[in-house]
């Protein structure tokens, strides 16, 4: 449990300042009352996942948010301080599986979906409490207790309405395609989830050169290179680049090198259409499958042999080529990544387990030219870190092509900070594929799709509609989650037959994407007291569901000619935050658009926090340090270092090792950690107009002194590398003046590393002039 705010006997001046000036709740409430009815600053919190305690990488982002809110509160702005939590999806499920000792979907089903859902809710509730307490100790101003939680039935209903609108506009479809698949989690993954360098790893795989004999040319063959042996049993074609030159040497065709000696040289076009013998064409699954060479302009000529083996059931590009050339699709593996019946000696083996038997079989058949290994960049599951495979499945998609230009137009209305990120978002939108929104999992948004054999896709838009059309199961429907929602059948709107919901749940980024509408009551006819605390969120929040008039007042940029900046992590901007693939499409889908004669909002990107060697801070890798950081601009990466300017060796020991172990081994370093300063962030409030920016932007710096004795710090850190060691003794405190704070911030001046006095000094940044004055920042 977290300790109450400690006294600071070693710093009497700081202690006196704390005792005299820090009554956080009283200050916060008085300032809110004072600013009520003033000019609005609309803030929408990008939610933390209530899944683990916060680390410094969370604290940095929350401090940046707090800086913006405090700065605007000091200028007399009325604000809504609603905190948010992400509460469902694969991230929660994986952690609960670890708690329960489960490691597959089969084990979850044996455990019981209802019990598993209950454990997921309990974990979320536990860490809602932990993260709230940590945020309070960080000194963050929020309307605690009125948070939004994305697994609320209210939030789910808003997403249902969005999906029904997609169906009405014919943007929703069921697709049969090859997708990235996690064999441990047993589900497909979207582009959003796999965005970011942390979702790739340098892995060692086999490197094989394999000979494919040509059917009608005795003694001739071509050679392919592969690093995924498990795909060879599903081979149906080979691809060449039509305008490249290929040479024949020692009976084998491969890309012709300049100056090389060959028996014959032809263009790739001359090889197209030739039939060949696949290495495993005798398998039952391969019966009757023709094998031929096809053209492909995207064949890479800088690696391998310039000839690519094609397995449409085991690769994304391969599957697309199957559609172009009418190739058969052999899907060799099940959802756990094991070979299906029809693949002879490989049946039941995982893709990794099959590698050695496949290499042995190739050698036995006399077609293995060369075998080695390669270390290369390979995708891993964003949550459980299992290496991914490609698998052909039926998933549900939102068609992006019709939305691409509206999304680009929406991006034109965003004032990005820094400005070059606007181009990055444009590039991402132009290359974004259709959005895979379905997951074959358990504790997530239940997709409200009820397909009927008559061909009608019934999409439910609200709980009221569900109850109206249900044929049974309502008596046990305690919330809109599996397994309870699975028991509710409805009548088909076309043929009146009884139909049931598909078992899939939704992409977790739908949850946060709807938040700007669901939390502020978009098109809600009336305010509903505690209307957000429904379903799984009941008892966890007292948040109301406002009415539509409230949404019109508070939706960012709708009324006020100014920018209200969301703060987004850079790699989340590329795909996995509510300001990424979800929030941008959702507004245009539902016609919830602000006026177009001004920037819709301002987007402030921040980088990842990393150690001095550039390694990303991450709880799973035990680099989520609890007390250490520097203070770059938010668009630059946060670098972790020890002490108030401590030596790099100390930072390396903390960064690269498992934190508790290294603290036990370096007790001198533990003493240094005991007086480390957290310099939370430094950022610049956005100027209203460019000519005002020329006058110089005002910086707000927040410093919070983390005070801990060596032994206390050591004991606390041993509890886990993700916990904040101590609350900030002097968080930024806003006073109040006529229309805002005058002495706006308290800054703790840190002492030297290893000990030393720290005095609390009032800091008076240049604040806004009187509300009637001209010189407002």
Topology:
Blueprint: H1 12-21, H2 24-35, E1 40-41, E2 48-49, H3 56-74, E3 78-79, E4 84-86, H4 90-100, H5 105-111, H6 113-138, E5 148-149, H7 153-168, E6 172-182, E7 187-188, H8 191-194, E8 200-213, E9 221-226, E10 237-240, E11 245-249, E12 252-255, E13 264-267, H9 268-271, E14 292-295, E15 307-310, H10 316-325, H11 355-364, E16 368-379, E17 389-398, H12 401-412, E18 414-417, H13 421-431, E19 435-436, E20 438-439, E21 449-451, E22 457-459, H14 463-469, E23 470-472, E24 489-491, E25 498-499, E26 505-506, H15 509-513, H16 515-518, H17 548-554, E27 567-569, H18 570-573, H19 578-589, E28 601-606, E29 609-611, E30 638-640, H20 648-656, H21 659-665, H22 667-673, E31 677-683, H23 690-693, E32 700-705, H24 710-718, E33 745-748, E34 760-763
Parallel strand pairs: 1-3, 2-4, 4-5, 9-12, 10-14, 18-28, 27-28, 29-30
Antiparallel strand pairs: 6-7, 6-17, 8-9, 8-16, 10-15, 11-12, 11-13, 17-19, 20-26, 21-22, 23-24, 24-25, 31-32, 33-34
Helix pairs in contact: 12-13, 22-24
Verbal overview:
The protein contains 24 helices and 34 strands. It has a six-stranded mixed β-sheet. A four-stranded antiparallel β-sheet has the order 7-6-17-19. Strand 8 (200-213) and strand 9 (221-226) form a beta hairpin. Helix 12 (401-412) runs antiparallel to helix 13 and helix 22 (667-673) packs across helix 24 (710-718). The radius of gyration is 29 Å and the shape is elongated. The two termini are 42 Å apart. Residues 1-8, 559-585 and 591-777 have low confidence and may be disordered.
Shape: elongated
The largest β sheet comes out as: 6 strands, mixed
- Count all strands and give the number: 34
Rounded Rg: 29 Å
Query: Spans with pLDDT under 50 lasting ≥5 residues?
Result: 1-8, 559-585, 591-777
Largest sheet strand order: 13-11-12-9-8-16
**How far do the termini sit from each other?**
42 Å
Number of helices: 24
Helical content, roughly?
A: 25-40%
Specify the structural class. Answer: alpha/beta
Strand content: 15-25%
Q: What do the pLDDT scores average to? A: 74
């Amino acid at each position: 449990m977290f300790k109450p705010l400690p006294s600071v006997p070693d710093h009497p001046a700081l202690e006196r300042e704390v005792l005299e000036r820090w009554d956080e709740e009283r200050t916060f409430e008085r300032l809110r009352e004072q600013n009520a009815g003033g000019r609005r600053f609309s803030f929408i919190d990008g939610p933390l996942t209530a899944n683990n305690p916060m680390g410094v990488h969370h604290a940095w982002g929350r401090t940046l948010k707090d800086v913006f809110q405090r700065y605007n509160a000091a200028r007399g702005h009325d604000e809504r301080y609603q905190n948010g939590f992400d509460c469902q999806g694969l991230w929660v499920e994986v952690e609960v599986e670890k708690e329960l000792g489960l490691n597959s979907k089969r084990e979850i089903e044996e455990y019981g979906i209802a019990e598993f859902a209950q454990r997921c809710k309990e974990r979320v509730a536990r860490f809602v409490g932990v993260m709230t307490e940590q945020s309070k100790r960080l000194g963050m101003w929020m309307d605690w207790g009125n948070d939004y939680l994305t697994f609320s039935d209210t939030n789910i209903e808003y997403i249902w309405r969005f999906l029904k609108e997609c169906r009405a506009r014919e943007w929703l479809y069921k697709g049969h395609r090859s997708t990235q698949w996690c064999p441990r989690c047993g589900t497909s993954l979207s582009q959003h989830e796999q965005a970011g360098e942390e979702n790739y790893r340098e892995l060692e795989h086999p490197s094989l050169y394999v000979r494919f004999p040509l059917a009608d040319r005795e003694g001739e063959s071509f050679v392919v290179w592969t690093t995924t042996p498990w795909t060879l049993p599903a081979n149906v074609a080979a691809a060449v680049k039509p305008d490249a030159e290929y040479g024949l040497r020692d009976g084998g065709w491969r890309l012709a090198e300049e100056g090389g000696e060959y028996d014959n040289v032809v263009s790739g076009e001359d090889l197209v259409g030739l039939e060949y013998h696949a290495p495993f064409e005798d398998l039952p699954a391969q019966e009757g499958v023709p094998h031929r060479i096809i053209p492909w302009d995207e064949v890479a000529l800088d690696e391998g042999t310039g000839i690519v083996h094609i397995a449409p059931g085991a690769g994304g590009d391969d599957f697309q080529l199957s559609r172009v050339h009418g190739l058969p699709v052999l899907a060799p593996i099940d959802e756990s990544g094991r070979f299906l019946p029809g693949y002879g000696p490989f049946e039941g083996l995982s893709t990794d387990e099959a590698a050695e038997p496949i290499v042995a079989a190739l050698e036995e058949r006399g077609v293995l030219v060369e075998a080695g290994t390669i270390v290369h960049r390979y995708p891993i599951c964003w949550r459980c870190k299992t290496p991914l495979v490609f698998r052909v499945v039926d998933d549900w998609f939102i068609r992006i092509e019709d939305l691409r230009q509206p999304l680009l137009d929406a991006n034109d209305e965003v004032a990005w900070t820094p400005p070059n990120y606007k181009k990055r978002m444009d590039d991402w939108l132009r290359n974004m594929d259709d959005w895979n929104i379905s997951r074959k999992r358990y504790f997530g948004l239940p997709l409200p799709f009820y397909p009927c054999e008559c061909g009608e896709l019934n999409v439910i838009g609200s709980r009221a509609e569900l109850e109206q059309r249900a044929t049974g199961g309502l008596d046990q429907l305690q919330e809109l989650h599996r397994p309870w929602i699975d028991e509710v059948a409805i009548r088909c709107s076309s043929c009146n037959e009884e139909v049931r919901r598909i078992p899939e749940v939704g992409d977790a980024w739908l949850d946060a994407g709807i938040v700007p509408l669901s939390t502020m009551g978009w098109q809600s006819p009336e305010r509903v007291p505690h209307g957000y605390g429904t379903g799984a969120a009941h008892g966890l929040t007292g948040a109301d569901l406002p009415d539509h008039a409230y949404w019109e007042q508070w939706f960012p940029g709708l009324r006020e000619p100014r920018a209200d900046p969301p703060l987004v992590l850079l790699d989340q901007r590329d795909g996995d935050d509510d300001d990424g693939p979800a929030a941008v499409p959702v507004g245009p889908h539902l016609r919830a658009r602000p006026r177009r004669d001004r920037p819709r909002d301002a987007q402030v990107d921040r980088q990842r926090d990393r150690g001095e060697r550039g390694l990303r801070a991450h709880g799973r890798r035990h680099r989520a340090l609890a007390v250490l950081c520097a203070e770059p601009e938010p668009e630059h990466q946060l670098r972790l270092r020890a002490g108030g300017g401590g030596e790099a060796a100390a930072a390396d020991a903390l960064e690269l090792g498992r934190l508790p172990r290294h603290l036990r081994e370096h007790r001198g370093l533990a003493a240094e950690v005991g007086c480390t300063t957290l310099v939370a962030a430094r950022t610049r409030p956005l100027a209203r107009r460019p000519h005002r920016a020329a006058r110089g932007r005002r910086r707000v710096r927040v410093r919070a002194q983390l005070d801990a004795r060596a032994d206390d710090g050591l004991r606390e850190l041993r509890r886990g590398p993700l916990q904040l060691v101590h609350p900030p003794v002097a968080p930024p405190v806003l006073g109040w003046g006529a229309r805002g704070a005058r002495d706006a911030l308290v800054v703790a001046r840190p002492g030297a590393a290893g000990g030393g006095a720290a005095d609390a000094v009032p800091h008076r940044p240049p604040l806004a002039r009187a509300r009637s004055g001209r010189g407002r920042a």
